[in-house]
């Protein structure tokens, strides 16, 4: 059966130590997303280099395999409307996705994909 994927691409606030964000990912981010039974697999990545081409605008991306893409964004509420994840996402934006002193903020792009099965 073809898998359904939610791809999140983003950057974290400039100056954040890589290990600090990695520890947050392991201890906070993973448990929050993985508690939802509709999320079949969830993992975070950091871009460490490029092999060819211009590279991407983002340094971080998450791969989230879900059981139903249509339900994931039902009625305009992301993450199946899961209150735990939605609260976590707001806290993430406040801590990692913005810098009030400089006005910097990260776009978080969300892309849906279905595996080409065959």
Automatic annotation (TrEMBL):
Protein name stated in the entry: EthD domain-containing protein
Origin species: Nocardiopsis flavescens
Lineage summary: Bacteria, Bacillati, Actinomycetota, Actinomycetes, Streptosporangiales
Gene3D superfamilies, A to Z: 3.30.70.100
Superkingdom of origin: Bacteria
């Amino acid at each position: 059966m073809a898998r359904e994927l939610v791809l999140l691409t983003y950057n974290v606030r400039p100056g954040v130590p890589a290990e600090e964000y990695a520890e947050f990912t392991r201890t906070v981010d993973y448990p929050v997303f993985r508690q939802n039974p509709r999320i079949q697999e969830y993992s975070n990545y950091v871009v460490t280099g490029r092999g060819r081409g211009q590279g991407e605008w983002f340094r971080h991306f998450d791969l989230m395999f879900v059981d139903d893409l249509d339900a994931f964004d039902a009625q305009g509420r992301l993450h199946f409307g899961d209150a735990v994840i939605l609260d976590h996402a707001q806290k993430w934006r406040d801590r990692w996705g913005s810098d009030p002193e400089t006005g910097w903020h990260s776009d978080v792009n969300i892309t849906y994909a279905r595996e080409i099965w065959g």
